[in-house]
Design goal:
Residues 67-163 form the Methyltransferase type domain. This protein is an alpha/beta fold and 282 residues long. It has helices spanning 2-24, 43-58, 75-84, 95-107, 145-155, 181-194, 202-212, 223-226, 228-237, 240-247, 251-258, 260-268; strands spanning 65-69, 87-92, 113-117, 130-136, 156-169, 215-221, 272-280.
């Protein structure tokens, strides 16, 4: 099952990353539209501000060795390398993304940044290799959330920080209503279109992180701050360059574009959540 899922994820990003970069640029993640989501911003600026706000929320100081888990075409990796003058390693399941990220690093003269195809559940790095593990919207793709958190902990240096933002569903245990059949059906469609095994709630992530041994674990729900992103993406599909690009894309990319409303409606009904988690290795 895992190998099939990984092939699906690889194919999704191999085939869609070029069009995304053409229309949206190098950052393949949500934008930040203020705490309540009401601030009007140019879309790329909103994505950059998400990175900055995450760093501020995580109280990130001056990391020198950073791992970007689920690096895409290197948007966050190159940004963090320049901001902190740090060595950055990015990993992705997509050879197309890794190759494009390498070209972008060379163009930017950032020789301290490298990219490779690797499995986040079995990372090819020694224990204690990084002082910041950064995961921006990749946790949702992980077929074993506990193993993912475990691997991030393993490759961190003592005192190093794990900072993650990921898609979640609403809390559904400990006094909250269980997910309804309609909600489960909605999530199943999101999983199918975006090649996700499943998502969990933010409290569940917190439990996993604490049980793994992370210290000073903190969480936050930024759903309101990022929710406008999906309607903006929907609008962008109608732009001539995006529309023409879709016409020449394969069915996987077209299906993802046609299904953007799944995420927008998920936020509107409070089902889809944007969760943050940070923790330090003792």
């Amino acid at each position: 099952m895992t190998s099939t899922l990984y092939q699906q994820i690889q194919q999704l990003y191999d085939t869609s990353s070029g069009l995304w970069e053409q229309v949206w640029g190098e950052h393949m993640h949500h934008g930040y539209y203020g705490p309540t989501g009401r601030e009007q911003k140019e879309r790329r600026q909103a994505q950059i501000e998400l990175i900055e706000e995450l760093l501020k929320w995580g109280q990130v100081q001056q990391p020198q060795h950073i791992l970007d888990v689920g690096c895409g075409i290197g948007g966050s990796s190159l940004y963090l390398a320049e901001k902190f003058q740090a060595a950055v390693t990015g990993i992705t399941l997509s050879p197309v993304q890794a190759a494009r990220a390498e070209v972008r690093a060379q163009t930017a003269n950032l020789s301290q940044v490298q990219f490779q195809v690797a499995d986040a559940l079995n990372m090819p790095f020694a224990e204690g290799s990084f002082d910041l593990v950064w995961s921006l919207e990749s946790g949702e793709h992980m077929p074993d959330k506990q193993k993912f958190i475990q691997e991030c902990y393993r490759v961190l240096k003592p005192g190093g920080m794990f900072l993650m933002a990921t898609w979640c569903h609403r809390p559904s245990g400990e006094g909250n209503w269980p997910l309804t059949p309609d909600e489960l059906s909605h999530l199943a469609e999101i999983y199918r279109v975006y090649c996700l095994p499943y998502v969990i709630s933010l409290p569940e992530y917190e439990t996993i992180a604490v049980n793994q041994g992370f210290q000073e674990v903190r969480t936050a729900d930024w759903s309101a701050a990022v929710a406008p992103f999906w309607n903006i993406v929907i609008d962008s599909v109608l732009e001539p360059s995006a529309f023409m690009g879709l016409l020449t894309s394969n069915w996987i990319t077209i299906q993802a574009a046609l299904s953007l409303g799944l995420m927008s409606r998920g936020y509107e009904r409070g089902l889809v959540r944007f969760g943050l988690l940070s923790g330090k290795k003792g």
